[in-house]
Amino acid sequence: MKLLLLTLTVLLLLTQLTPGSTQRCWNLHGKCRRRCFKKERVYVYCINSKMCCVKPRYQPKGRLWPF
Q1: E strands of the chain, at which residues?
Q2: What is the top-level taxon of the source organism (predicted)?
Q3: Which of 27, 51, 49, 48 is nearest to 40 (CA)?
Q4: What are the C-alpha distances in Å from 43 to residues 14, 24, 37?
Q5: Cα 23 to chain center, whole Å?
Q6: Is residue 54 assigned to a domain?
Q7: Distance (Å, rounded) from C-alpha 43 to C-alpha 64?
Q8: pTM score, two decimals?
Q9: Terminus of the chain with fewer CB atoms < 10 Å: N or C?
Q10: Per-residue pLDDT for 18 more than 70?
Q11: CATH number for the domain harbouring residue 41
């Protein structure tokens, strides 16, 4: 019984300590964060006033329509 109680306690603590998933943005290629990683760039801002960090390969290249 003690082993079961200990196991449940550890599992409960692990679920609280693991980081939650971040909000996705930019066609699910980016993540809303306060700071972007080195290889990511900010292209748009999220609704929750965080930056949408997107890898450069998923960002649009130049202008679509030349005006």
Answers
A1: 24-25, 30-33, 41-45, 51-54
A2: Eukaryota
A3: 51
A4: 34, 13, 13
A5: 5
A6: yes
A7: 16
A8: 0.57
A9: C
A10: no
A11: 3.10.360
With a CB cutoff of 8 Å and minimum separation 6, the contacts of 29 are 54, 55, 58
Range of the domain at 43: 19-58
Domain count of the chain? Answer: 1
Q: Angle 67-42-44 (CA atoms, 0-180°, nearest 5)? A: 60
pLDDT, one tens digit per residue, over 19-48 is 556 788 888 889 998 999 999 988 789 888
Separation between Cα atoms, residue 52 and residue 4, nearest integer Å: 43
- Judged by DSSP in three states, 53 sits in strand
Give a yes or no: residue 66 inside a domain: no
Report how far apart, in Å, the C-alpha atoms of 13 and of each of 5, 8, 20 are: 12, 9, 14
